[in-house]
Design brief:
Largest sheet: 4 strands, antiparallel
Number of domains: 2
Shape: globular
Distance between the termini: 27 Å
Helix content: 40-55%
Low-confidence stretches: none
Order of helices and strands: HHHHHHHEEEEHEEEEEEH
Length: 338
Amino acid sequence: MDSVTQIALGAAIGELVLGRKVGWRAALAGGICGTLPDLDVFIPLGDPVSDFTYHRGASHSLFVLSLAAPVIAEAIIRFQKRAREHRLAWHLLVFAVLITHPLLDSFTVYGTQIFWPIDPTPVGWATIFIIDPAYTLPLLVGVLCALAMRRTKPAGHRMNSLGLVLSSAYLAWTVMAKQQAIEAAERGLERAGIENAKVMPIAGPFTSLFWRVVAVDGDTYYNAYYSILDGTADELSFAPHSRNMELLNGLQEDWATQRLQWFTKGFYTLKRDGDDVILSDLRMGFEPNYVFTFKLASIGNPHAVPLAKSERVPIGQDLSGLAWVWQRIWSADVPHRP
């Protein structure tokens, strides 16, 4: 999730655990700890593919964070003498905030390596977009109420608890919404005669009411769009696109190509742009503009030639399709996207 959401979640948990005893310091500490795992983005790893695929790795591991939590908690206690009165609670606060960060990230499609180093496979349940105001706003309002309502402290604490309950309930709702999208996709694929395809419904930008369903079957991938509100669950249609898998010739042993194939869980496509070979992660974005797109190779004779690390540049994308998403949530009659 985005940094604002993680800070809000950390602050809300901090307030819940210690707000009644240490006041605003609990929310402050929770907010700071809530953003610590994401500081890995400031560590340069040499090339865009490494930066992309190693993010949410070791810094988001449940094992690493469990070991780091007592160290951070003791640092807080030493820095603030009054915290010694509540040593156990401070340890609980830091542990809870650090652990909920990667668990929340796991609900997004990007994926989080929560079991690193035992199993570095990214966990991504893809039930919520990385920015979703319906999840974040209850947390923010609850924390702000707790901080602002100092003269009526119990009421402020109750508001914070209510914010956590509402955000958690919304997260549970996204799981149910995804199940509806899965069922609609299965009916659509069966109607289209598409068998043995890998299918992934993905929450749309800023909402859990709209879903893009991507299916991959050999050299073809399909896109379909489903809104919970427009009544098209039985009319889902899949638009086919070529994955241009022949462009992999010459790249089978290329580290960057293998890494992206693994990280995307097979949901990727290739295209040729002049003499460049481009790989796009199909899980994030809309056809034909996908958020994470990389130039990996140049066309050689007779096969593609991998680029050097310094030449593997990410490709900027047009995000104008976000306006279409809002229209499509409410009606299937808006102009169609492939």
